[in-house]
Amino acid sequence: MKKLTSLVLTIGLGGYLLLAGCSSTNSKVSDGVNKMLDTTEQLSKAIDSGDQAKVKEIGPKLEDQWSSFEDDVKKDNKDSYAKVEKYLDPTIAGSEATTLNKSALKTLNNQLSDALKELAKKTK
Hints:
The protein is mainly α and 124 residues long. The chain is 88% helix and 0% strand.
């Protein structure tokens, strides 16, 4: 009986730790997505105002934010990972361009925001 009780407790504890780990990953992804959405909002305002210096400052932050949790997304949400990647690199490149193409960058930034919002729904 003691062995059975020990086995049940061990399995229960292991399951709890496993679930806690999954929650931690979702929390990390969720926090990262929220930071990126804040950044895309700031970028949108800078694009609308035509402040090229601000656009160049904000745009590259997206890559650093994404790199902090992208491996978790790639592992658990391949489709969302592909969508974010599809719009992330062109958005960053557009933000670093010598001449600001407001229309194209605004479109890319909106598409990136939409992909991030979709990912946020999947990680809730």
